[in-house]
């Protein structure tokens, strides 16, 4: 199929619903900040459309309805994409129509608060739009088209660092692995909040000392867009590159560039003051435009906490607004909130006992939908225990951000300032950090420092397990075997230690997920190069060197501990040898060729470690087995990627059990345990190498898979198992 190229044109999407009576409603208009030529999944997008004239929007509506009627009778959701010329004529060309819910439907649902998939399913079985209520208001009809009095910005999340040698330039094929969504009263506020949600080491757009200042590199980046395009647009304007030149290179509408330019001017104005001299009106403007306390603290060379105290004393406090689908024309029945800085606060605090569950942020390699599963089931369990549940998350792709999952949803960045303000407002009994992966876990230290109770395992235990050196010292005291190790803080120390430990060595930084920057090295040159790279990317982080157990069998054990009893809920044996990250390995539940002596050692070590860490809730421990000795690789007193797999394989709600234990509402002896599994369950990693054909497919200690599947087999004679087992060495990195 050959189409006219419309590269550089503006791109729009409409989300529609149609019933069998041919009633049609337009749920949401979405504008891509990036022009045609970059896949919409890799584009920054905005809802509602910002730069579309009303006459062109009406033409687009009519074309979408006409197209939908032309493809036949159907009832349900529909997505239509258009290209619009960037001149005054605003010519419209339809790109494609999808008579189904699309990837953008989830974004549109979260942006408007209108549950597109739920209504589409009812339309498909014969209901009509005019007889269905809008679930948000409870009073208006589903025929009532959403009207937004806020702006939504979606920014994709990439993981190019996992694919060495990958072509990082964005184009017609989608390469992102996740996305964040932010809501603000203005485009600028939503854009800053989206940048804070990404978890790429930035505090927002600008004001963090990480700007690119090389004009040639910036211009090359603008012409060859990649994951950092948004930040480089800001850098270009800050450097003084003309808006005309930026528009000529990027084809991004000048309206968006002017919005970013205004932020650059505001940063310049702020930089003329210090915290004790800034006018309250200017500080309020900065907060209303989305600047984080941390960004302002960078400009003023002070602490984030000092900015927070100063603005609160000045009456500049965060207020919360309802996502109500109808611009406040009708009252919303659903407590679904975003924050801004205005006078009226629409989030009313109840007198019920509350618990906050921190979400897992954007999907990326190492932290995917598994942790959202854990958050959702944790919320449901806390509800059962009588708590008012409060979810904080920024990922539009997940069930945790459905408006009817938690009692209250704050669609906010999982970023300290936002979390702290919500906690100050809601005054919960405590915060659950065990379920949201590394996103939630890395905030435990701040919660502890500010005196906010962590529900379940204490911060001290979490920190011991994360700090590889402290954890290995604990194992030594317990008499539990572990590979010879050492902690280093310089490249020279690494070389000296390697002469004691011997090669090969596993090099790994502390406080990471998904095997980030883990590598097996076989000589001093490789060791020194990799250690220097880690210190460059993670300054101040400790690095652990382990003697690598070549040819060992790797095993994962997950357990729940209530402080007295340890219940092992699953032991999974990896098919590939140790050295391939657990997330990239095929794994079998229960183990398929471990003897009773090995399994007994695994159970004993798991109980010892869980009790020594005073675990309350979940713990995951990874083992390496060599010469009939069971060594500990690491322990994580939190939900792991494997818990949802085990829960589904055995048909047991393990997150529910763990959450009840965390909350102190039950001991393990009170919770029945009846796992059911005939034969074996095999975890199947899923990779996205087709997106990066130039990348080597070898596997190692840094995770590369973007998902997983489950397959049930009756026995080990199964052809699928035998094929996978025969290929277990095929992609092992040398």
Report the major sheet.
Answer: 7 strands, antiparallel
Low-confidence stretches: none
Please estimate the helix content: 25-40%
Shape, please? Answer: globular
Overall pLDDT: 91
What fraction of residues sit in β-strands? 15-25%
Strand order of the largest sheet: 5-4-1-2-3-6-7
User: Structural class per helix/strand content?
Assistant: alpha+beta
| C-alpha-based Rg, rounded | 26 Å
Count of extended strands: 24
Count of helical stretches? 23
**C-alpha termini separation:** 43 Å
Give an account of the 3D structure.
- The chain is α+β, with helices and mostly antiparallel strands.
- It has 23 helices and 24 strands.
- The protein has a seven-stranded antiparallel β-sheet with strand order 5-4-1-2-3-6-7, with helices on both faces. The protein has a seven-stranded antiparallel β-sheet with strand order 22-21-18-19-20-23-24, with helices on both faces. Strands 8-9-12-11-10-13 form a six-stranded mixed β-sheet, with helices on both faces.
- A hairpin with a 7-residue loop joins strand 4 and strand 5.
- Helix 10 packs across helix 11.
- The relative contact order is 0.08.
